[in-house]
Design brief:
- With 670 residues, the chain is an alpha/beta fold.
- Strand 13 (371-377), helix 12 (384-392) and strand 14 (398-403) form a beta-alpha-beta unit.
- The protein contains 22 helices and 21 strands.
- It is globular and about 90 Å long.
- Helix 7 (235-244) packs antiparallel against helix 9 (282-295) and helix 8 (251-265) packs parallel to helix 9 (282-295).
- Bound molecules: adenosine-5'-diphosphate (ADP) and magnesium ion.
- Adenosine-5'-diphosphate binds at residues 247-250, 253, 276, 278-284, 404, 428.
Length: 670
């Protein structure tokens, strides 16, 4: 056993902290590598670039002054000469250094230099006599300091280091000329040279991404190999259905339909993501595949994230299946007792039925007759829990996840590595693109004029505000305030208000009134984001729009432009750094895929993590965006092993499969 407490200095408190960071035993501790390193290697002005972190020698030439800016925040400033040139140095929260820095003292500064303003912003300061060239590991372990980590890791290595085996296959180590795990462990927690650092990075990044892919691909292949019942249907029924549609399917819609149908016909379970921009026509694609499964004699369930959306889908599918033999029923948590009983009986005793609802679909008392296909709209709300419930009901249904948020290709490979992906890029022709315009907060008058214009035409309006946390000081508009403002500006119109604190019933009521045209202006936080379809709305005003991601704005914008009337999206923004440039992209393009790529470039992957649990995607050193080329190589390497049956008996892969078993057990526990 290699219990954490077996190391001197680790008690219950620290153990608890380690556990919270996913460190359960000494091997985990040894394997928790630094997430980055601070390099303190002396440089010279000639070799230093502005704005990049450097370490350099300096001489103090003025008496340091402290400015106390606010509580727990002070600035120490003084002059130095660096190679004979004078610079002003600022360093924060080091007021205690004031008395150490004598005039003429030789020091070493780490930080960034600005030669234009002759200034230096320091993060670290040492007296020259105490300085040595070094590389300091920085760990990403909450609640445990870097020093503590270094100390305990070294102890753990002394005790248990020799027991660790290299589970990365030899073949791959040789192929990429990586260092062995034993050599890695010796240097990873305290590298001495840049060359060592380079060796560490290569091995760590590859290993992290390879193991990640190995898990993902294993899961995908395993899911794919689960048997599902074969669904047989009459293709002519589908042909007739498609012929009766009031439009021709786009090429992408045809391609998507074929991909899904191939999975449905196969004797293996489908686990597929259907992604396509708002309005790309995913619903009708889904409908065709639903019809096939119903024809084959199975029930179909479709889950929506909200009551409103469930009702909308219910309407859409009832309409689409009007001329078929199939019934579409609604099952949400809000049905009356009698209606629920009726629905329940129907589901229990009839096959030719599609059931649409919220998570109520998977309540314990709902007994399906022969459920063969589950569709979930806006997949990120469909959790592991529901999947488990389905499994427990004894089904291996085909599963299709639909999402209207295009995932950048570079992220899809990791976020949805365990699924097959179908993408609709092309949009049906004939839709009028939404006209998007930017306004600063000084130009609100113009915004009101445009609102007034649309109201006069009898059109409806969305006004969207960001979610404001209690803790934020609000120069920002919150929904409540904007609501009052709108009431004042447009006293003759009906203004509605919706935000997350409003009770579900009231939300539904407000939404219904907006759908019926009884509300003219709907002021709302982003709760309207997903899927809501109100044809009469032609104008959307988004306040504080610089606070939203581009993908999110695009989602919001997708709520308008749903009829043949011209629609407008007005983005009101506070003129902060970079806001205008970023928002202007919204004016230029209507392509959700491009916008999501921009989001990724400008704001990083965090934006997209909400869509999947990201716990599996925490790496010490790899970065799923920057290192995407390694990720792709690693994926192929993983597949090469997993798709070769011989691998499973090959001793060369024994440790790798042992790792896999443990990793999977752990994620299930989470
Ligand atoms: P999504 O679910 O992808 O946002 P929908 O399926 O709701 O898109 O489709 C948006 C609208 O476009 C619907 O009103 C639908 O009837 C219509 N539509 C779908 N496919 C086509 C097509 N090929 N040609 C014209 N209109 C289409
Ligand atoms: Mg939709």
């Amino acid at each position: 056993m290699s219990r954490l407490e077996s190391i001197k200095g680790i008690g219950p408190k620290l153990k608890e902290k380690f556990n919270r960071n996913g460190i359960y035993d000494c091997f985990d501790l040894i394997r928790r590598f630094p997430s980055r390193y601070e390099v303190y290697h002396l440089t010279t002005l000639k070799d230093a670039a502005d704005g990049v972190r450097i370490t350099i020698e300096a001489k103090v030439t003025s008496v340091p002054k402290v400015a106390y800016i606010r509580k727990n925040f002070n600035r120490l400033s003084f002059d130095v000469t660096i190679e004979g040139r004078t610079f002003k140095v600022a360093i924060f929260n080091r007021d205690y250094l004031k008395n150490i820095l004598d005039l003429g003292a030789d020091i070493v500064l780490t930080g960034t230099i600005d030669r234009v303003h002759n200034s230096f912003t320091a993060t670290t300061l040492k007296l020259k006599e105490n300085f040595k060239n070094e590389i300091e590991p920085v760990y990403n372990v909450d609640g445990v300091s870097n020093n503590q980590m270094s100390k305990f890791v070294q102890k753990a290595i002394e005790e248990y280091g020799h027991l660790i085996e290299d589970d990365l296959p030899k073949r791959l180590i040789t192929k990429y000329k990586l260092i062995s795990y034993h050599d890695l462990i010796k240097i990873v927690h305290r590298p001495k040279t840049m060359k060592e650092l380079d060796k560490i990075t290569r091995r760590v990044k590859y290993e992290e991404l390879f193991k990640f892919q190995f898990k993902m691909q294993y899961t995908r292949l395993k899911n794919k190999s689960k048997k599902s019942e074969i669904k047989r249907y009459d293709v002519n029924v589908l042909r007739n259905f498609i012929d009766r549609l009031p439009y021709e399917l786009t090429n992408d819609q045809k391609k998507a339909t074929n991909e899904i149908m191939k999975d449905i016909k196969s004797p293996y379970v489908m686990n597929r993501l259907l992604q396509g921009d708002v309005g790309s026509g995913k619903t009708v694609v889904a409908a065709i595949t639903v019809l096939a499964v119903l024809e084959a004699g199975f029930q179909v369930a479709m889950m929506a994230p909200t009551e409103i959306l469930a009702k909308q889908h219910h309407r859409t599918f009832s309409e689409l299946f009007r001329d078929t033999d199939y019934k579409v029923i609604l099952l949400t948590g809000k049905l009356s007792r009698e209606d629920r009983q009726l629905a329940k009986d129907f589901i229990e005793y009839h096959n030719n039925v599609m059931i649409i609802g919220t998570h109520a679909l998977f309540s314990d008392d709902i007994v399906y007759n022969n459920l063969g296909y589950v569709i979930t709209d806006e997949q990120h709300r469909f959790g592991v829990e529901q999947r488990r419930k389905l499994r427990e009901k004894g089904f291996n249904p085909d599963v299709l996840y639909m999402t209207a948020t295009p995932i950048p290709r570079t992220l899809a490979i990791s976020l949805f590595g365990d699924m097959d992906i179908t993408t609709i890029r092309e949009k049906p022709s004939g839709r009028q693109p939404v006209d998007t315009k930017l306004f600063t907060t000084d130009q609100l008058d113009m915004v009101y004029i445009m609102i007034d214009d649309e109201l006069r035409k009898g059109h409806q309006i969305y006004v969207v505000t960001p979610l404001i946390l209690e803790s934020e000081s609000s120069d920002l508009s919150n929904a409540q305030r904007v609501f009052s403002q709108m009431q004042k500006q447009f006293p003759n119109n009906m203004v509605g208000l919706m935000h997350s604190k409003i009770r579900q019933e009231d939300k539904d009521k407000v939404m219904e009134m907006f759908e019926q045209g009884e509300i003219d202006i709907l002021v709302s936080t982003t709760v309207i984001e997903v899927g809501v379809d109100v044809k009469g709305a032609t104008l959307m005003v988004v306040f504080d729009s610089e606070r939203f991601g581009l993908s999110q704005l695009h989602q919001l914008r997708g709520r308008i432009g749903r009829s043949d009337k011209k629609s407008y999206c007005l983005l009101v923004y506070n003129d902060t750094e970079g806001a205008k440039e970023r928002l202007e992209i919204m004016e230029r393009t209507d392509d959700g895929f491009r916008l999501s790529e921009e989001d990724l470039r400008l704001r990083g992957p965090g934006e997209f993590f909400g869509y999947r649990q990201s716990g599996d995607m925490k790496f010490d050193q790899a970065d799923i965006v920057r290192d995407v080329h390694i990720l792709e190589i690693a994926k192929q390497d993983a597949l090469d092993i997993l798709t070769d049956k011989a691998s499973y008996y090959d001793t060369a892969y024994q440790l790798l499969f042992k790792y896999l078993k443990n990793a999977i057990r752990r994620t299930n526990l989470d």
